[in-house]
């Protein structure tokens, strides 16, 4: 039997506004689910239930007084442990910050609270968000909701698992090389990487880069759009932010007519290692979709040189962010963070100039690609989940791997273009784990990308083999 916490966020918000449920009841349902299943998966890592309960009572009183309500009024929201939350422990997954409690919220958290969200929990992440598996030396590893012995991916892994198990109706995430999309894929939920600047951040060290963004996660597309509408905005401290943006236009979406869409698909972007079993699953999904769209054809966009460019450009963020710690003592940084910093030290200014030029060339070729196609469909993960204790796998169905981002080409290639991309659930893979479909839209057309995802989500819901898979909550509760 479903609990209140299992309902979609859009439904919950409507019921709160109609006085049919109380924010207090909803929060208690979420707390009960967290206490029942989180011991099995370790997705929620810091909580403030006492303050949350007080806020829920205040939200209930506001409803009863008939006051104006924000779009997230009374909804509990999980915050990735990279975001500063006033009064709630924020560690960034690093032992250096194990007891850090920020004195103020960063912009995006303040925006969520202004919209009526109740921030009650932080979700696990690898150290400084660095890695394809959610594991750190502060809280340990987060297990997959469908098999707690396996990885939930990273770096927004705690958020993905919290959503999969209905511990919270909405969660935040962030994405550089795929950190919103990849955990969504392995948790059977939705993760949306918006156009850079749509969700401003005053914390980005490299404000003019398109690589790192913050974005929403939900259990379906409509919930994800609801959260995006509250996260989006403008902020002069972020040079990528658009001062002409109207965030309210993002919230309520309508599915596009699939029969009008020109769809391209690529299993590997022409360069990314992909496990044979994932290739087979993806090709089967494209065959299932083909009859519902105007055109569905295989085509790899021009990504020549993007792997080298990504390796160089991503390292600049590590050099900008961690120099003070590395020069004090390299051991202050975990393995992934330290190795990326040290890789950056080996590159020259000429390497960076060449990488920026290659990224620009690929970007321009991508614009030509989207003159011929409305959408690009891709897998969201290169492989099925691996054991959660591994920092990263060293092989993938016989394909040797050298590092954690060897399996991320299918997502970081898209990050480098600055285009919006969303992962939606699309059944299970051959191992019985969730399979995620990545949908890439035209530059700046986040609303259209969400609407296309909504239409595909509805198509998949009518086919049991393609519908969103659900974890066994009773089994997780017993394990906990």
Task: Tell me the layout of helices and strands.
Blueprint: H1 9-17, H2 23-41, E1 44-47, H3 49-64, E2 76-80, H4 107-114, E3 118-123, E4 135-136, E5 140-141, E6 143-144, E7 147-151, H5 157-164, E8 170-175, H6 181-187, E9 190-193, E10 213-218, H7 221-231, E11 262-265, H8 276-290, E12 295-298, H9 306-328, H10 335-346, H11 349-372, E13 375-379, E14 395-396, E15 399-400, H12 409-415, E16 421-428, E17 434-440, H13 446-461, H14 473-479
Parallel strand pairs: 2-3, 2-8, 11-12, 11-13
Antiparallel strand pairs: 1-3, 4-5, 6-7, 8-10, 9-10, 9-16, 13-17, 14-15, 16-17
Helix pairs in contact: 2-3, 2-14, 5-6, 9-10, 9-11
The largest pleated sheet is described as: 11 strands, mixed
- Report the helical percentage: 25-40%
Structural class: alpha+beta
Report the end-to-end length measured between terminal Cα atoms.
19 Å
User: Could you tell me the strand content as a percent range?
Assistant: 15-25%
Mean pLDDT level = 96
Number of domain modules: 1
CATH topology, which one? Amidase signature (AS) enzymes
The total of helices stands at 14
User: Would you count the extended β strands for me?
Assistant: 17
- Cα shape: globular
- Biggest sheet: strand arrangement: 1-3-2-8-10-9-16-17-13-11-12
CATH class: Alpha Beta
Q: Mind telling me the C-alpha Rg?
A: 21 Å
**CATH architecture label name:** Alpha-Beta Complex
Could you state the CATH homologous superfamily?
A: Amidase signature (AS) domain
Which blocks of ≥5 consecutive residues have pLDDT under 50? none
């Amino acid at each position: 039997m479903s609990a209140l916490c299992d309902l979609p966020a859009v439904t919950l918000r409507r019921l709160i506004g109609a006085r049919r449920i109380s924010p207090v009841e909803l929060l208690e349902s979420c707390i009960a689910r967290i206490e029942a299943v989180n011991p099995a998966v370790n997705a929620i890592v810091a909580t403030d239930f006492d303050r949350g309960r007080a806020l829920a009572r205040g939200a209930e009183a506001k409803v009863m007084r008939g006051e104006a309500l924000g779009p997230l009024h009374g909804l509990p929201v999980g915050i990735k442990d990279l975001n500063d939350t006033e009064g709630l422990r924020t560690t960034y997954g690093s032992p250096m910050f194990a007891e850090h409690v920020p004195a103020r919220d960063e912009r995006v958290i303040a925006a969520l609270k202004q919209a009526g969200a109740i921030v009650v929990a932080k979700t696990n992440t690898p150290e400084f968000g660095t890695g394809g598996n959610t594991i750190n030396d502060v809280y340990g590893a987060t297990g997959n909701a469908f098999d707690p012995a396996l990885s939930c991916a990273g770096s927004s892994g705690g958020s993905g698992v919290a959503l999969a198990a209905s511990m919270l109706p909405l969660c935040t995430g962030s994405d550089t090389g795929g950190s919103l999309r990849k955990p969504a894929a392995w948790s059977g939920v939705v993760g949306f990487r918006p156009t850079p600047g749509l969700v401003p951040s005053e914390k980005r060290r490299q404000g003019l880069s398109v690589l790192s963004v913050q974005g929403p996660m939900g259990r379906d597309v409509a919930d994800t759009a609801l959260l995006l509408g509250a996260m989006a905005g403008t902020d002069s401290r972020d040079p990528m932010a658009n001062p002409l943006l109207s965030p309210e236009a993002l919230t309520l979406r309508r599915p596009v007519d699939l029969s009008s869409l020109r769809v391209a698909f690529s299993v590997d972007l022409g360069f990314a290692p992909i496990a044979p079993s994932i290739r087979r699953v993806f090709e089967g999904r494209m065959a299932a979709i083909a009859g519902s769209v105007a055109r569905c054809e295989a085509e790899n966009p021009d990504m020549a040189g993007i792997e080298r460019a990504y390796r160089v450009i991503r390292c600049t963020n590590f050099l900008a962010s961690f120099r003070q710690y590395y020069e004090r003592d390299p051991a202050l940084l975990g393995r992934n963070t330290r190795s990326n910093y040290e890789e950056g030290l080996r590159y020259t200014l000429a390497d960076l100039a060449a990488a920026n030029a290659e990224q620009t060339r690929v970007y321009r070729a991508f614009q030509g690609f989207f003159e011929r196609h409305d959408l690009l469909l891709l897998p969201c993960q290169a492989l099925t989940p691996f054991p959660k204790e591994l920092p990263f796998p060293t092989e993938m169905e016989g394909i040797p791997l050298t590092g954690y981002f060897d399996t991320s080409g299918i997502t970081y290639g898209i990050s480098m273009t600055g285009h919006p991309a969303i992962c939606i659930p699309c059944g299970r893979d051959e191992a019985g784990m969730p399979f995620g479909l990545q949908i890439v839209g035209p530059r700046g057309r986040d609303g259209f990308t969400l609407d296309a995802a909504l239409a595909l989500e509805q198509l998949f819901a009518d086919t049991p083999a393609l519908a969103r898979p659900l974890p066994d909550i009773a089994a997780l509760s017993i394990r906990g």
